[in-house]
């Protein structure tokens, strides 16, 4: 026989009576008379072909047939209540929650947001800029962009972009008495250090970068330190010194001329990359899928621009 739904009023009366084990209290809850509850339960018993309650000295009790159906019936009504509450909510725009590192958010993602909103005005982005990786299993975030080795158990992982580091500075440091022309000239300038906690063992610091170019700096670890890559880049733009920066995050400022790379051949590739990660145990929403597709297109454009610099 094809599956069919039993009368909802009868099911509702049965569930209330089963919960209270009392027709009168069930009637009070449903705002009907006890006789109406009794009538609905008799209708249900006629359809299923057996009694759902028996009257004993201690009161109303469920039969085996009635008892076996109550848990599923109760769950079904709870889900109907959840759906009813959802339908009563005012219409909302589709939302996508994204977790990203502060530097990536401010220097790479935010300058591109107008493009996304123009392409998807119906989608509302909720961006959380976090210093530490967000636990996607909690269900509060749809996806994240992480900078790391790409090994993220329990998550769906897509590589977005690779990374290199290179010295960058304000254009004003390229002229004057201490103009930067060769790596040894950096000994006359303040070195800015990226201390963001990304755990990348392949990323060179200033001591490594200078040593690889034969520069014997007296103290390459001196200078200002920043725990966020975005702050490091802003300090370089302000002329506070020369930064050894992630090129992906510095690209927009290099393209605009706010920063210059005094040694175009000074880039060094690192082992870490940027990855889009999503929970594996729940399918992405159509809005999240659209945002990831947009991210990937932006990454391709980024790589093409990087190749021209």
From TrEMBL:
Tagged with keyword Nucleotide-binding: no
Residue stretches making up the HTH lysR-type domain: 6-63
PROSITE patterns to which the protein is assigned, alphabetical: HTH_LYSR (PS50931)
Protein family: Belongs to the LysR transcriptional regulatory family.
Cited InterPro entries: LysR-type_TF_proteobact-type (IPR058163), LysR_HTH_N (IPR000847), LysR_subst-bd (IPR005119), WH-like_DNA-bd_sf (IPR036388), WH_DNA-bd_sf (IPR036390)
Protein name: LysR family transcriptional regulator
Gene3D superfamilies the record matches: Periplasmic binding protein-like II, Winged helix-like DNA-binding domain superfamily/Winged helix DNA-binding domain
Source species: Brevundimonas intermedia
SUPFAM superfamilies: Periplasmic binding protein-like II, Winged helix' DNA-binding domain
UniProt keyword list: DNA-binding, Transcription, Transcription regulation
Superkingdom to which the source organism belongs: Bacteria
PANTHER family: HTH-TYPE TRANSCRIPTIONAL REGULATOR, HTH-TYPE TRANSCRIPTIONAL REGULATOR TRPI
Pfam families, A to Z: HTH_1, LysR_substrate
Record keyword Transferase present: no
NCBIfam families linked: PRK11139.1
């Amino acid at each position: 026989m094809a599956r069919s739904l039993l009368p909802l009023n009868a099911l509702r009366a049965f569930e209330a009576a089963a919960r209270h084990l009392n027709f009168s209290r069930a009637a009070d809850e449903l705002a009907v008379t006890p006789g109406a509850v009794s009538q609905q339960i008799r209708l249900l018993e006629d359809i299923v072909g057996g009694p759902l309650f028996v009257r004993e000295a201690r009161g109303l009790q469920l039969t085996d047939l009635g008892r076996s159906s109550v848990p599923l019936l109760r769950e079904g009504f709870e889900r109907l209540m959840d759906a009813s509450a959802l339908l009563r909510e005012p219409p909302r725009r589709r939302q996508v929650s994204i977790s990203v590192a502060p530097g990536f958010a401010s220097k790479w993602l935010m300058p591109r947001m107008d493009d996304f909103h123009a392409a998807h005005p119906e989608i509302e982005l909720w961006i959380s800029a976090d210093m530490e990786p967000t636990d996607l299993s909690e269900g509060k975030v749809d996806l994240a962009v992480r900078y790391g080795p790409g090994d993220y158990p329990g998550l769906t992982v897509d590589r977005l972009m690779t990374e290199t580091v290179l010295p960058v500075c304000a254009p004003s440091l390229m002229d004057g008495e201490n103009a930067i022309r060769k790596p040894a000239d950096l000994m006359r300038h303040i070195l800015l250090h990226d201390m963001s906690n990304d755990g990348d063992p392949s990323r060179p610091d200033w001591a490594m970068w200078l040593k690889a170019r034969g520069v014997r700096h007296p103290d390459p670890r001196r200078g200002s330190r920043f725990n966020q890559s975005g702050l490091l880049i802003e300090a370089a733009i302000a002329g506070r010194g020369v930064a050894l920066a992630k090129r992906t995050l510095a690209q927009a400022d290099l393209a605009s001329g706010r920063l210059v790379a005094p040694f175009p051949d000074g880039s060094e590739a690192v082992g870490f990359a940027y990855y889009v990660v999503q929970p594996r145990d729940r399918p992405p929403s159509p809005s999240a899928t659209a945002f990831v597709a947009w991210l990937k297109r932006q990454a391709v454009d980024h790589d093409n621009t990087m190749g021209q610099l």
